[in-house]
Backbone:
C-alpha cells in the first residue's frame, strides 16, 4: 500500500507533542498534535518540567493513533526514516523526542536523523506549497525566534537578519500577560486588534530607520508597558482594543519593513512566512498587500502548520536524508543548536 | 552614568540610557570569573537583558538575546556563559529542575533574570542587581549592585573604581 519513502516525524521541542507520517516530500499520511497550551496558559508560558512530563504522557498514544490512521502495521518494514527535532528548544522537552526516536530507530532498525527545528519551519512551506522552489526568503517568526533567512538551496542557508533581543511572539506574550489577557498572546491580541484603532497610540516601530535587516522588540514591549502604567497612574482608562491594534501595527510594521529590505537586498522576490506569528492575521494581510503591489510571491502555510508540528520535521528530515545527511545513536538534544 | 556607594558591598548606579546600562554590563562582565553568579531583580521592561548583553560582550559573546522562550541559553564565551530567564516559572520545583547550580560547579558564569523566583541562598561570588525605573523618565534606570562574599566585593570595588577613573561621580542634583 505504501510504496514510496515513508518518514516518521517527531517534534517535542516546546509545548506541543507532534507525530507525523510523511510519504515522500509532500504527502501527509497522518499528523497529530497534542497541545499543552491549556496546561501552561495559567503560567503565561511554557513550564519546562511540566512540558517534559506531558510529552512523555502524550508521545506513545499519539504514535499509536498516527500508525492507525496511516495504516502502518509493521513499522520496521513500513517506515524508512525517523526524523526528530534535536534542537533548538527546551532540554527536557527535546530529550523526550530524541530518546523515543533513538529507541524506535534501534528497535526497528530504521535510519535516524536529527532535525533542526528552524530548518523544520522552512519546510512547513515546502509541504504546504508544492510550487515553492529555491531560492526564496524564509521569514520565521515565533515565540522564540524572529529570523529572515535566504534559502539558496536546501541545506544552504544564509541568515540575513534576526532579533537583537526579544522574539516577536515573546513581545506579544509579555504584553498580553501584563494586560492579563492570557497565553499565548499572539492570537488574543490579534483578535482584539481587529476591533481597535491602530493609529490611536503612537508606539515606536523598532529599528525601522536602520539600514540593516534586524529586529528589536524589547523596546516596543517596554514602551507599551510604560504607556499602560502612565495611564493607570493618572487614572486614564485605556481602550484595550486600540492599544492592541496600535501594538500590532508596530510589530507588523517592523516585520514588513525588514522583509522589504531583504527582498531589495537579495533581489529574491519569493517570501515564505512560517512560525506561530505567521498565523497573525494582521501580518498575513499586510504582507499579501505589499507583495501584490510589488509583484512578489508570498507563501503562507495554513494556520495549523505555522505553529510547531511534526509534518515539517518529517519533511526537513526526508530532504536532508536525500542530501546524504544522517545521524546515529549518539544523537543528543542541543538546546541552542545554531543552523545559519 | 552616576554612582554612589551605599555601603562596603553595595553601590547604586544611575544609567541615563539603555546604552549606559549596556556599558555598565560590559564593566561588570570584565570583572567576572568562572563560578560567578549574577542575580537580576526587577520587572518587565527594566532592561535586564540589556545589561546582560553588555556582560556577554565583555565575555566575547555577541548574540545575547532574551532567553525567555528556551529558559536557559548556553554560550561559549571566554568563560562559558549561561543566561537563564525564570520569567515563565512559578514553583520552586520547576526552577530546581533546571539544576542551575550545576553550571557554577562546571565553572560557568551564570546570569539569572527574574532571580526572585530562585529559592537559593548564595553567599559568595555573586552580584545581586536590582533595576528600577524612575517615575519621570522612561529611559533612566537606577541599578543597585550588591556584592556577596569578599572576592565579589573586590570586583565591585573594581567596577566602581573604573567608573570613578572616568570621572563619573554621583551627582545628587541630577536626581
Residues:
Amino acid at each position: 500500500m505504501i510504496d514510496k519513502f515513508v518518514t516518521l516525524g517527531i517534534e517535542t521541542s516546546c509545548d506541543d507533542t507532534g507525530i507525523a507520517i510523511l510519504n515522500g516530500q509532500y504527502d501527509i499520511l497522518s499528523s497529530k498534535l497534542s497541545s499543552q497550551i491549556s496546561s501552561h496558559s495559567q503560567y503565561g508560558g511554557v513550564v519546562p518540567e511540566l512540558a517534559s512530563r506531558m510529552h512523555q504522557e502524550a508521545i506513545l498514544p499519539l504514535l499509536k493513533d498516527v500508525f492507525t490512521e496511516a495504516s502502518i502495521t509493521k513499522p520496521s518494514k513500513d517506515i524508512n526514516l525517523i526524523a526528530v527535532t534535536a534542537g533548538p528548544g527546551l532540554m527536557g522537552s527535546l530529550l523526550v523526542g530524541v530518546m523515543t526516536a533513538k529507541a524506535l530507530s534501534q528497535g526497528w532498525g530504521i535510519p535516524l536523523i536529527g532535525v533542526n527545528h528552524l530548518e523544520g519551519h522552512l519546510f512547513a512551506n515546502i509541504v504546504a506549497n508544492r510550487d515553492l522552489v529555491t531560492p526564496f526568503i524564509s521569514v520565521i517568526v515565533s515565540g522564540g525566534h524572529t529570523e529572515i533567512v535566504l534559502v539558496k538551496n536546501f541545506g544552504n542557508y544564509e541568515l540575513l537578519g534576526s532579533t537583537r533581543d526579544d522574539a516577536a511572539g515573546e513581545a506579544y506574550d509579555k504584553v498580553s500577560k501584563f494586560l492579563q489577557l492570557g497565553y499565548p498572546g499572539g492570537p488574543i491580541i490579534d483578535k482584539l486588534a481587529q476591533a481597535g484603532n491602530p493609529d490611536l497610540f503612537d508606539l515606536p516601530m523598532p529599528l525601522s530607520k536602520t539600514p540593516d535587516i534586524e529586529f528589536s522588540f524589547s523596546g516596543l514591549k517596554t514602551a507599551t508597558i510604560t504607556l499602560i502604567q502612565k495611564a493607570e497612574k493618572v487614572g486614564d482608562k485605556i481602550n484595550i482594543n486600540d492599544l492592541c491594534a496600535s501594538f500590532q501595527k508596530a510589530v507588523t510594521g517592523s516585520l514588513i519593513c525588514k522583509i522589504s529590505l531583504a527582498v531589495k537586498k537579495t533581489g529574491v522576490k519569493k517570501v515564505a512566512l512560517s512560525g506561530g506569528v505567521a498565523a497573525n492575521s494582521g501580518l498575513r494581510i499586510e504582507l499579501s498587500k505589499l507583495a501584490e503591489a510589488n509583484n512578489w510571491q508570498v507563501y503562507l502555510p495554513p494556520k495549523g502548520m505555522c505553529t510547531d508540528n511534526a509534518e515539517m520535521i518529517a519533511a526537513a528530515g526526508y530532504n536532508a536524508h536525500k542530501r546524504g545527511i544522517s545521524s546515529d545513536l549518539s544523537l543528543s538534544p542541543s538546546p541552542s543548536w545554531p543552523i545559519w | 552614568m552616576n554612582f554612589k556607594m551605599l555601603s562596603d558591598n553595595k553601590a547604586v548606579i544611575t544609567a541615563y540610557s539603555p546604552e549606559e546600562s549596556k556599558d555598565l554590563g560590559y564593566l561588570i562582565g570584565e570583572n567576572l570569573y568562572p563560578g560567578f553568579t549574577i542575580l537580576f531583580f526587577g520587572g518587565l521592561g527594566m532592561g535586564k537583558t540589556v545589561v546582560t548583553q553588555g556582560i556577554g560582550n565583555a565575555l566575547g559573546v555577541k548574540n545575547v538575546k532574551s532567553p525567555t522562550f528556551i529558559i536557559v541559553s548556553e554560550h561559549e564565551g571566554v568563560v562559558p556563559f549561561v543566561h537563564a530567564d525564570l520569567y515563565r516559572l512559578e514553583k520552586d520545583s520547576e526552577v530546581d529542575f533546571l539544576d542551575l547550580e550545576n553550571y557554577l560547579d562546571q565553572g560557568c558564569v551564570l546570569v539569572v533574570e527574574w532571580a526572585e523566583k530562585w529559592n537559593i541562598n548564595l553567599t559568595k561570588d555573586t552580584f545581586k542587581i536590582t533595576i528600577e525605573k524612575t517615575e519621570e523618565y522612561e529611559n533612566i534606570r537606577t541599578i543597585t549592585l550588591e556584592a556577596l562574599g569578599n572576592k565579589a566585593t573586590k570586583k565591585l570595588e573594581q567596577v566602581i573604581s573604573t567608573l570613578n577613573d572616568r570621572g563619573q561621580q554621583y551627582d545628587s542634583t541630577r536626581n
Notes: Strands of chain A lie at 6-11, 16-23, 27-35, 81-87, 112-116, 136-141, 146-153, 156-162, 270-274, 297-299. The first helix of chain A runs from residue 37 to 41. Chain A has two domains: 6-122+306-322, 132-300.
